[in-house]
Design goal:
The chain starts with a helix and ends in a 7-residue tail after the last helix. It is globular. The protein is mainly alpha-helical. Strand 2 and strand 3 form a beta hairpin.
Length: 233
């Protein structure tokens, strides 16, 4: 925990002069998504508040916001913990992804589409593969799907899916073989990009439906082996 708090202190500058619970929650959300605080980690009010230089009340409000986003959980008389998802949680996350992401593709309208962000995410994944950095590949994959959702041009949809993707990262952090989890989707991201470049929404949606179903199967397999049905190791 001492090493984590030392690194977190580096984020103090991000708060600027307008230190708010929202900014603190943004920092903690990013750290949780990056696996800095893995699922099951107890978050110390004194340690994190001291590292960021914020008041206890501000930190508690940030914790409340992240609890509302289902990234943290408060356990009576024990404190605040990074949430460990259950298989039911994972299935619900993918159900939401399928509903939203497929609807975005279906509703794109006439091509051409602004695909620079998707192409950049594919390039990010390629670079991670060259470096054998499978955690970075997982991040690139999340970026790809964020860019896919952004094609809808809806701030509300972006905000909704930001929380969904942050929860998804909690599931990814449980994986004991991130290469096996993430590597197959680099080629599939490229296929999706090619279909959208061709203006073929029907093929892109079909590819995405199969992609998400296969991804769910892989993540659930990991969960059953590593965590258990209810999120209890």
């Amino acid at each position: 925990m001492a090493e984590q708090l030392a690194g977190l202190a580096d984020d103090r500058a991000l708060l600027g002069r307008t230190s708010t619970a929202e900014r603190v929650s943004d920092i903690l959300r990013s750290r949780i998504a990056d696996g800095y605080f893995p699922p099951g980690t107890r978050l110390s009010e004194d340690g994190i508040g001291g590292a960021l230089g914020v008041s206890r009340n501000t930190l508690r409000e940030a914790f409340r916001l992240l609890t509302h986003e289902r990234l943290l959980v408060h356990e009576l008389n024990r404190g605040v913990f990074v949430r460990v998802l259950s298989i039911e949680d994972v299935e619900d996350i993918y159900r939401t992804r399928s509903l939203v992401e497929c609807a975005v593709v279906r509703g794109l309208g006439e091509p051409p589409y602004p695909l620079d962000g998707l192409a950049a995410a594919v390039g990010e994944g390629d670079a991670a593969a060259v470096e054998n950095d499978w955690k970075a590949m997982g991040t690139a994959n999340i970026h790809f799907h964020q860019e896919l959702v952004a094609l809808a041009g809806s701030e509300r949809t972006d905000e909704l899916m930001r929380s969904v993707f942050a929860e998804l990262r909690l599931a990814f952090h449980v994986a004991d073989d991130p290469r096996r989890l993430h590597e197959p989707y680099l080629a599939r991201n490229r296929q999706l990009l090619q279909a959208l470049r061709a203006g073929d929404r029907t093929t892109a949606e079909r590819l995405l439906e199969t992609y998400l179903a296969d991804s769910l199967g892989r993540v659930v397999e990991v969960y059953r082996r590593r965590v258990g049905e209810d999120g209890a190791p």
